[in-house]
Amino acid sequence: MTTEIEARVRLAREIERGASVLSSRVVEAFLNVPRHPFVPAFYRRDGTKYVPTRGHNDEWLRAVYADDVLVTEVHGVHVEDAPDGGVTGDATSSSTAPGLMAEMLDALDVRPGDRVWEIGTGTGYNAALLCHLAGAGGVTTVDRTGRLVDAARERLRGVGFEPAVLRADGAGTPPLGGPFDRIIATCTGPPRSCPCGRTGARRAPASRRRSRADAGRASSAPASWTTMPSPSGPASACPGPSSGTAARCTTRRTARPPASRTTRAVRRP
C-alpha cells in the first residue's frame, strides 16, 4: 500500500526529472504541500460523460499524485455535487498538471514576502504552493463562484494556510492587498491577451511544451506568455510593485481544462 508521503515524493521527483530547469525552492514546495486534501474527488471521462471518482484508496491516491490534470467541475457542477451517473458538458475547473504548475511557479520567481495575486483559485492547491513560497499573508487568490472559493478556503485552512480567498472577477479591478509583486492567472482568458490588458503572446519553445491527448487534458499546448506591465499603468491594469520595478504577470490561455506552458520571465536581481 502506497502512503501519501511516498506518493508525494514520487511526484516531486517526476516533476524535477521532467523540467528543463527548475529551482530547488519549487521542488521543495511540492514535497511539503500535499495535493490530496484539495482533490478529495475528481471527474474521469467516460464516453460523453464526466463521472465522479470518490474514495480514498490506492487507485485514487495514484491518480491524485500523478502529473496529470484532474477535472473538478463540469458545466458549473462541482464534482462533490455531481450524481454518481456523471454529468455532460465542458470542463470548467480543474487541478492543473503539477509539472505545468511547477514551471509556471518557477517562471513567476516568487520570493518570501512577495505579495502575489492569483487569478483562478480552482481547488486551492496552487494557492497553497504560493503560500509556501511567499507566505500566506501575502497571497490573494480569486475565483468566480462561491462554491469554488468556499471549498478552497476551507481546504487551505485545513493544511495550515490562510491567504485571502475572494469571490471576484479576475478581469476587473485588482482586489485589496495590492500593489502586487507577482500576478499569476490560471484561468481562461481572451485569446492572446493578458488580464492586465496587454497583448502579444510568445510561443513557448518546443522543448517546454507538452502534448496531451485524451479528454480531460489539453490536446496541445497553446501559446502562453509573460507580460511585464508598467507600474505607471491605469488602476484597472495589473498594478506594479511598490519598489517601482515591473510586476511579472504569468498568464495561460487555456484549452479544456486549463493546461499550457509558460515562457521563462526575466528574473529580478
Strand proportion: 15-25%
Q: Identify the strand order in the major beta sheet.
A: 8-7-6-9-11-10
Low-confidence stretches: 191-269
- Category by helix and strand content: alpha/beta
Terminal Cα separation, in Å? Answer: 46 Å
Which range best describes the helical content: under 10%, 10-25%, 25-40%, 40-55%, 55-70% or over 70%? 10-25%
Shape: globular
The quaternary state of the protein chains shown equals single chain
Structure description:
The chain has 269 residues and is of the alpha/beta class. It contains six helices and eleven strands. The chain has helices spanning 4-18, 24-32, 58-64, 98-108, 125-134, 146-158, and strands at residues 41-46, 49-54, 70-74, 77-78, 91-95, 116-119, 139-143, 164-167, 182-185, 224-227, 248-252. The chain has a six-stranded mixed beta sheet with strand order 8-7-6-9-11-10, with helices on one face. The longest helix has 15 residues, at 4-18.
List the helices and strands and how they pair.
Elements: H1 4-18, H2 24-32, E1 41-46, E2 49-54, H3 58-64, E3 70-74, E4 77-78, E5 91-95, H4 98-108, E6 116-119, H5 125-134, E7 139-143, H6 146-158, E8 164-167, E9 182-185, E10 224-227, E11 248-252
Helix pairs in contact: 1-2, 2-5
